[in-house]
């Protein structure tokens, strides 16, 4: 995924934004990590469960959150807590977007899996703009 992302000088504004990846499928998580890094973002960490995500939450600005993880369908609860307790900009990643659309107040949206690098790139740009307008 990461090799297909175009990097341009404007991307330097992404430096310092930390992205948390909450995904239990290792290859998807690593692919997403490559894309995020290729765009110039820092990765706050990879988590595959609610407990891991909450430990990493204080270090994140933006999070991609899968719905179904190793501990069950905890993604919506993780997303809600990231938004409410930590001010993280949340984007859900799932093959079933209807499961989370409109359910978590403050979430930026949903990226349908499998996610193309261009969709991840577009979503990250939107997330940065959303954070800038908040502060």
What does the model show?
This protein is an alpha/beta fold. The protein has 4 helices and 5 strands, in the order βαβαβαββα. The protein has helices at residues 26-38, 50-56, 75-86, 117-134; strands at 18-22, 42-47, 62-66, 89-94, 109-112. The chain has a 5-stranded parallel beta sheet with strand order 2-1-3-4-5, with helices on both faces. The longest helix is centred in the C-terminal third of the chain and has 18 residues, at 117-134. The N and C termini lie far apart (31 Å).
State the total count of DSSP E strands: 5
Characterize the overall form.
Answer: globular
Rg computed from alpha carbons, rounded to a whole number of angstroms: 13 Å
Oligomer: single chain
Helices and strands: which structural class? alpha/beta
Strand content: 15-25%
- Overall mean pLDDT stands at 88
Order of helices and strands: EHEHEHEEH
Query: Gap between N and C termini, in Å?
Result: 31 Å
Q: In DSSP terms, counting alpha (H) and pi (I) runs of 4 or more, how many helices?
A: 4
Q: Which strand order spans the largest sheet, edge to edge or round the barrel?
A: 2-1-3-4-5
Largest sheet: 5 strands, parallel
Spans with pLDDT under 50 lasting ≥5 residues? Answer: none
What share of residues is helical? Answer: 25-40%
